[in-house]
Amino acid sequence: MRFDLLTSLSCHTNSSSQKLALLKPLSMAAVAIAALCSMSNIHAKTFFTDTSVSVLYGDDYELVEDGELTTVTLEHASAHDWGGVFFFVDRNQGADDIENNRFRETYGELSPTFKIATFNDSFIKQVNLAATYEFGSNSTGFDQDNYLVGIGADLNVPIPGTTFASATLYHAFNDNTDDDQQITLTYGWERNNFVVDGFIDYSFNNDDIEDNIHINPQIKYNLQEVLGIDNRLEVGMEYSYWKNKYGVDGVNQNSPSALVKFHF
């Protein structure tokens, strides 16, 4: 959900080694998620699993050539008796610049949670040990590997239609900036084929960059019933509000994007 690209704004190269660097984090993450899924299927009871691919397009992104960005996202979420796994990887592609170069980036997160305690008839349903591995690289030569550890809670929000809600406090061991802390909120709601979900990240206490907050909801409509198909097909929009994007003081992003999402 959060990545530090501040140092990438001044470097531009196109070597073959950088192309390999773009693929390395993606392959590492794919191996990790496959291993986790295999372990969970063998040794644990699975309550829920969902895998999807989505395409986003917007033309008002900050710190991107002409503001234009197309993103293809592979996403997986599953819940088990021991905890859960959330994983996504983005492939971002910008518009051509004056020299016909095109910004490309791979960014992903692998976030397992491990159940510590559960509660009945309580606002807090479950307390989790939480971790996140953030990885990414782009065509400017920038790359990163950040590691986050913390404590989180699954919440019982008394709003009809709520499918999930959580709050987590992390300490982030950052690759390219000073360490900091992060609060992450996630939520999901669905009723009459309308779906609203997303996250809020607030990163603070970093001596190298400014505190920043990223609010990122998706508003979608599920066409599965209308089209009479076996899988969920959602269309709608994503809105990205990011104050001090990447920790850059005064760079504030307000960007809507068109969205199509297909669930396997």
TrEMBL record:
Signal sequence bounds: 1-44
Keyword Signal included in the entry's annotation: yes
Keywords: Signal
UniProt key word Transcription: no
Organism this protein belongs to: Psychrobacter proteolyticus
UniProt cross-references to InterPro entries, sorted A to Z: Channel_Tsx-like_sf (IPR036777)
Name of the protein in its database record: DUF5020 family protein
